[in-house]
Amino acid sequence: MYPNRTVRAAYGRMHAVEQKRDEELLAEHLAGEAGAFDLLVSRFAEDLYSFFVRLLGNTTAADDLVQETFLQVHLSAATFDPARSFKPWLYTIAANKARDFIRARRRRPMQSLDAVPGDEDNPSPAAMLPADDSSEAADLDTREQAELVRAVVARMPEHLQLILVLGYYQKLPYAEIAEILDIPVGTVKSRLHAAVGHFAKLWLAQTKASTSEG
Asked: How far apart are CA 30 and CA 182, in angstroms?
């Protein structure tokens, strides 16, 4: 039991704010409601960071692009269609930022990639080897393999990179991916299947090459 009505009321207001739909929060932000935009950021910043890291393999770029994405949301909030869902709109902006980064990177010399940390809830398509926390060597092997996974993904065509990360890692529904990429749901399914197959071929070739060099 809460000690008094004031505490109960405060908790109720906080809970009500947390339960508000994303679209409501964006509308409140447009209306000048303090804290509405901050709550949107807190809801999606971590997911967006994971999206950018897994797609780009660069934690510094991921940090920058998260900020750029929310800046674009702020600047474009008035153009948002209230009949749409906020999340696909947000990821559409993020995907465009990622495309721009990928294209710019391909126009300049390739730099070393940050390691992509392992994620037990979202294992990589290459079935990352489990790390033994007591073994530095095992940790190193896992980090090296994560870098190899990222390097393989980087060699894939841009449209397959995006579909693989959105569908496999971010686990977004087909309908949301279709809206984000502006393609039919059927194309999402076939493209995701193609992306997994393409990754598998590149990974096998990479594995064979590494074995030959060893």
From this structure: 26
At 89, list the tokens.
Answer: 């709109």
Distance (Å, rounded) from C-alpha 61 to C-alpha 116?
Answer: 13
Model pTM above 0.85: no
Give the domains, in start order, of the chain with CATH numbers.
Answer: 17-111 (1.10.1740.10), 135-214 (1.10.10.10)
Residue reference for tokens 């991916």: 177
| pLDDT tens profile 22-73 | 999 999 999 999 999 999 999 999 999 999 998 998 899 999 999 999 999 9
Which one, of 64, 61, 72, lies nearest residue 96 by Cα?
72
Cβ–Cβ < 8 Å for 28, 36: yes
Amino acid, res. 156: M
Supply the DSSP string of 33-47, one letter for each residue.
Answer: -TTHHHHHHHHHHHH
CA distance 208 to 53: 26
**Greatest CA span in the chain, whole angstroms?**
72
Identify the burial level of 90 via C-beta atoms within 10 angstroms of its C-beta, where 0-12 means exposed, 13-18 middle and 19 or more buried: buried
Triad 96, 24, 92: Cα angle to 5°: 10
